[in-house]
Amino acid sequence: MNTIIQNILVYTALALAVAFIVKTYVWSPKKKKTKACGGDDSCGCH
Amino acid sequence: MSKQINVALIGNPNTGKTSVFNALTGLNQKVGNYPGITVEKKEGVCKLPRGVKAHIIDLPGTYSLNASSLDENVVIELLLNKKDKDFPDIAVVVSDVENLKRNLLLFTQIKDLEIPTLLVINMADRMSYKGISLDIDYLEEHLQTKIALISTRKGQGIDNLKNLIANYKDLSITPCLNASEIDRDYFDSLRKAFPNQLLYKLWLVITQDVNFGKTDRNEIDAVANFKTKSKGDLKRLQQKETIKRYQFINNVLKKGQTIDISQAKDLRTKFDRILTHKVWGYVIFFFILLTIFQAIYDWSSVPMDFIDSIFASLSEWVKNMLPDGAFTNLLAEGIIPGLGGIVIFIPQIAFLFLFIAVLEESGYMSRVVFLMDRVMRRFGLSGKSVVPLISGTACAIPAIMATRNIESWKERLITILVTPFTTCSARLPVYLIIIALVIPEGRILGLSYQALTLMLLYLIGFVTAVFSAYILNKILKIRSKTFFVVEMPNYKLPMFKNVALTVIEKTKSFVFGAGKIILAISIVLWFLASYGPGDAFNNAENIVKSEYASQHLTKEDLQQKIASHKLEHSFIGITGRAIEPVIRPLGYDWKIGIAIVSSFAAREVFVGTLATIYSVGSDEEETIKNRMASEVNPILGGPLFTFASGISLLLFYAFAMQCMSTLAIVKKETNSWKWPVLQLVIMTTFAYIVALIAFQFLK
Question: Which residues of B have a CB under 8 Å from any CB of A?
Answer without folding.
Answer: 35-38, 68-70, 73, 209-214, 323-328, 330, 404, 407-409, 412, 480, 516-517, 519-521, 523-524, 527, 601, 660, 668-669, 671
